[in-house]
Amino acid sequence: MSQPDPLLPSNLFGEIDPPQRLLMGPGPVNAHPRVLRAMSADLLGQFDPEMTGYMNQVMALYRPIFGTANRWTMLVDGTARAGIEAALVSLVAPGDRVLVVNFGRFGLLLTEILGRIGAVIETVDAPWGQVVPMDAIAAAIERTAPKLVATIHGDTSTTMAQPLNGLGALCHAAGALLYVDATATIGGMELATDRWGADIVTGGLQKCLGGPSGSAPITISDRAAEVIFARRHTEAGIRMAELADGAGPRIGSNYFDLAMIMDYWSDKRLNHHTEATTMLYGARECARLMLGEGLEARYARHAAAGRAMTAGLRAMGLTVFGDDAHRMTNVTGVFIPEGVEGEAIRTMMREAFEIEIGTAFGPLSGKIWRIGAMGYNAARHKVLITLNALESCLRREGFALAPGAAVDAAMEAWSRV
Ligand SMILES: Cc1ncc(COP(=O)(O)O)c(C=O)c1O
Questions:
Q1: Residue 318 burial (C-beta neighbours within 10 Å; 0-12, 13-18, 19+)
Q2: What is the pLDDT of residue 1?
Q3: Is 356 in the pocket of ligand 1 (CB under 6 A)?
């Protein structure tokens, strides 16, 4: 008898069979079943005309979602930060000055990535829970003369949405480009890339687009494309006569080299990476779902969900975090009441109700919960179920509140325009 291999797990751990959790945190959220179905479709070779046809369809589907006519609208393979990193490493060379509009954890992430690139980093900051006033950004642009201004649209760490109207014009007048991370708002709040004058905007699927994480939609203006192609240094082995190298410094990453990624998504189909077929199917279905619903209806549904969640939390006697005037519609921060153990409530929500709500980072850690209603989960019944469950958990922990008040207030707020 041969001996069992000691390295082989005895039962192969069993089939994947996760619990059916309702994900009401700041993302990821439950993927729409149509997205999951699309992702189980057969694979294709990356140069199969059906596959390149799907790639072209994805480009067309994401233009209205980004609010742009940009030719270069496509996907970067990887989670949302793959899109961020591709944008920053392709636009910024070591020594370039970049101004970061910083009002939360993800503004700090921009500085972290830029630090690794070797950029000279300037910041214009707001305390967590506020946004940066446009005149402060204008003054910082004048003071620092950056090559790029980089900002988050909605920062899930603080639940604040930075106003962006007019920012592109300010940047361009000063000779700077504008980058926007819209990971947390794409699909839920309006993106107006062309109206804002943003040069690169990136997103992710796992929040308001109602897909899994792993693909980063991106749009790139012609102005930014020019800067990127000036840095084109196609890797040896896939060079093409018609793709001349640029005079600018080589982009400091191969995987995130947008010049090569754009050449791959162009008619030239330069063989850079192997496109993540399954993720592309998912991203395509996310976009079809959104455009089928209609942009206005989609934004109105997220706004109703945010309004209902906020009204319900307040009716429970809780205090909502941050500046009301700049709240994201799809995620709400709420203070953990005095005397209540935040993690005990999150555990009870998960174990008794199969509902996940979010914890917080940095200075807000242990102080607030973050409760989302995004994409497939921006639905009235899911908001009501979550509020009801939270009310029940709080009462069991001894927090006095009026039973039923949250659901009543949320139902009323949902239908208020
Ligand atoms: C505003 C923002 N940017 C970037 C990210 C990072 O996304 P990912 O984890 O998909 O890389 C997140 C994730 O929560 C986010 O909320």
A1: buried
A2: 61
A3: no
